[in-house]
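Running log. JK asked me to keep both predictions on one page so they can be read side by side. First protein, sequence followed by its tokens:
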Amino acid sequence: EFQNLHRKYKSRLHEFTRGHFFGSYEFDLNETIYIFTSGRYEYHNKGMDLFIEALWRLNQELRRIDSPRRVVAFIVTNANTKRMNADVLRSHFMLQELRETCDEITDRVGDRIFELAARGHIIDPCGLLDDEDKVQLKRMLYSRSEIMPPKIVTHDMKDDSGDSILCHLRHRHLFNGEHDPVKVVYHPEFISSTNPLFGMDYDDFVRGCHLGIFPSYYEPWGYTPAECTVLGIPSVCSDLSGFGAFIREHVPDHNDRGLFVIERRKLGDQGAVEQLTNLLVDFCTLGRRERIELRNRCERTSDLLDWSSLINYYTQARDLALDRTYSSLIS
């Protein structure tokens, strides 16, 4: 079931990609990997700085090896914005209008095929589109054509020049160029079903992605990688997070289960970036069957994160806190 759900919501992300990128250029969606990071806007604590730095290195490496693989990397957080960008909205609305136009033409072509078949005529595919259909399609294609690269941020920011994420993306020249294997979409608003760009809830967005990245510098626990695991999506966290420490202790073969843990405590920032980059390069070389098997193994680990198991740790933590706070008073 969760494999079918992944396929269903990945098609929604394909639709987003068509609207956001295909007006400027196109690439093979069958060779596209969707990765994301999300959480509160804590640029350093949430590891967003490591994520962007690893994306820059991944972009360089995929270009060096001339890989056909494309990566669309989402950064989802809640930042100070003015409004959704008008050009971004226009691109997506134009795609919707193109789909409606194609549906209308499809209906008309279907009627022509039926009429010709009913008359016993041999159907010539070249004659199925009439002049009006061709003019309508050309008009739509020209209206969608963009000269500038797709935008790296979906909203107009209140402090565009001071936003840490935008500054880092610009510093590393991650501008969604046509020949850049790594494309970036910074979405400074949490995703919900009312969102005009995605039209789905956050859980469904996660299901459509291939990999979640959460290399936190500080995280008492970390629900985002746990949510990925329950949804059958591989994830990356760090050993400085409670979740990462828990996984390393209780799941010896966590890498084989799609639960990757970056060693930030031992390696430091630069070493962690290199480790994350190597992990991303390796993930991008996986075939479709290998990714399916990894999602299967990841989902089978989710029982470890059921509340019937985790509640015991919360009870122990509460008892320890009470004991340490009040034991001296009682004695």
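And the second, directly underneath as requested:
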Amino acid sequence: MELSLLEQAKKLFPLCRSITGNGLRKTLDYFEDLHPDLNRISFPTGAEVFDWLIPKEWNINNAYIEHLETGKKYADFSICNLHVVGYSEPINLVMELEDLKSKIYTLADQPNWIPYVTSYYQKNWGFCMSEKEKNNLPEGKYKVVIDSSLDDGFLELSHAIIKGTTTEEIFFSSYVCHPSMANNELSGPVLLSAILDYVKKTYKNNKYTYRFVLLPETIGSISYLSLNYKKMKENIISGFNLSCVGDERSYSHVQSAYGNTLSDKALSAALKGLENVKTYSYLQRGSDERQYCAPGIDLPLCTFCRTKFGEYPEYHTSADDFSVVTENGLNGSLEVMKSIIDAFELGLNPSVRTYCEPQLGKRGLYPNISKENNNERHPAQTRMDVLAYCNGENSIFDICNLTGLNLRTVVDEINILDFNDLIINNCNK
């Protein structure tokens, strides 16, 4: 039985992911089992990827602090994998509470939540717990255990290329490096998986080539680009980084560096008319758009979120759970991406076949409804507005932005017009 997007996210939630290690590996295994098109790429510890070096591989078995007098455990990794600072080196010590407190991270303004803290590139260790729990730690000595390893290993990622009749590519990227957080981590990968599935099942002879990648954020995208950026720069005409796409609070568009790519137009069109849409400048970037749009890479990519990373209170805390991420939230994101894919596959630059307005009435496309209220919009007005801009130069996304119509509405109208042989669908110009 096929799992829903929410069920997939819940299944993957317990894994302790990081930028390397077994949690990341098992997450990639899961998606590769779903999609044999996904292939693994590995980068060994110490490999140079542009200005970066692949770090040692981190794995963790257990971590806790134990009050020696009572035997009670706190910040127990087996209960919540956010309790340990990501990439903590192995530790086995006995410490006084006052000394231990400097290695415990909390959120004073959110006293009931556990923060997410990492130290990837500098040796360190620590624990995370709620401010409330920290304040209630009993005085005395504590046994401090982090059963982890930092060894030569690999950074891994998975990618798929679904070839089309043209080498021009549409690119989707998301990340798989965060421990148990629902929106900031798992919403993006399960959405990307659903998009891959949609392309393969809906378009057996797809016009465009589709590139998908699941990777650890920042170092993963840098590594992937180090191998592929020349081909990607040559072929990618539109790309979308998927992050925090599972809630129902808003829809967000983080623009490309200059906000003027085909991707920006596409996402803006797909979000037209939806509730609580927010647009953010590239100056408010924070995910892998930083790498894909970096000088010298300059891919035409923007980031799609529901509520943007850093803009919802549960972000990077233990409260980023399935009270934040919902099936409706995930499916709403999927519908946005499906409308963009449908627009590309339909033909981006439609042109009307007739001079002047076509006679819609004889084709049954112009309802004869008298209007008693002169302010009422005619039922055919949407169709006529779409036709008015089908000049072979405007893209479907341009038509949305010119008319104020949502992309799904315009795609549906152009499908009707195409079925009635009123337009020619042209590919990207």
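Observation for JK regarding the second prediction: The chain has twelve helices and 18 strands.
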